[in-house]
Every structure is written in C-alpha cells, then in structure tokens.
Automatic annotation (TrEMBL):
Gene Ontology molecular function: nucleotide binding
GO biological process annotation, one example: defense response
Gene that encodes the chain: VvCHDh000660_9
Keywords from the UniProt entry: Nucleotide-binding, Plant defense, Repeat
A Pfam family recorded for this sequence: Rx_N
Domain of life the protein comes from: Eukaryota
Disease resistance N-terminal domain residues: 5-78
The organism's taxonomic lineage, starting at the top: Eukaryota, Viridiplantae, Streptophyta, Embryophyta, Tracheophyta
Name under which the protein is recorded: Putative disease resistance protein
Length: 82
C-alpha cells in the first residue's frame, strides 16, 4: 500500500517537473524573441527621433513604441529571474 502511494507521488512529481521544464523552455524562447523585437524597436526609434520634430504622427508612434519597449524590458527582466 505504501509502495503504491510513494510510486504515485513520484509519478506526480515527475509530471509536474516535466510540465515546468516545458513551460520554462517556452518562456526562454519568448524572451529571446522579445529581445530581438526590442532591437528592432531601438533601430526604429533611432531613425524616428530625427523625424518626430517634423511629423506629429511619428511623434505619437515613437511615444507608443517607447511605452511598449519599456513594458517588454520589464517582462524580460521578470522572466529572466525565474
């Protein structure tokens, strides 16, 4: 009886560890993708900085992209510490 309880517990723990590993692998891939996207955003922002003085639409895009970039950086920091 005790053997079956221990066997069940070990199986459950193993399943949980496997699920966590799969989740963390997915998180790592998402962090990598977000970092690539942030680099693209930085390139856009460098180009747009000069143009935002002349065009209000560009100024709005720059503001929105900066906000998204800050949120993405915060998410990367949080996920990297997992």
């Amino acid at each position: 009886m005790a053997e079956s309880a221990v066997s069940f517990a070990v199986e459950r723990i193993g399943d949980t560890i496997l699920q966590k590993a799969i989740f963390l692998k997915g998180v790592h891939e998402q962090v990598d993708r977000m970092q690539r996207e942030l680099k693209r955003m930085q390139c856009f922002l460098k180009d747009a900085d000069a143009k935002q003085q002349e065009d209000e639409r560009v100024r709005n895009w720059v503001s929105e992209i900066r906000d998204v970039a800050y949120d993405a950086e915060d998410a990367i920091d949080a996920l990297s510490s997992m």
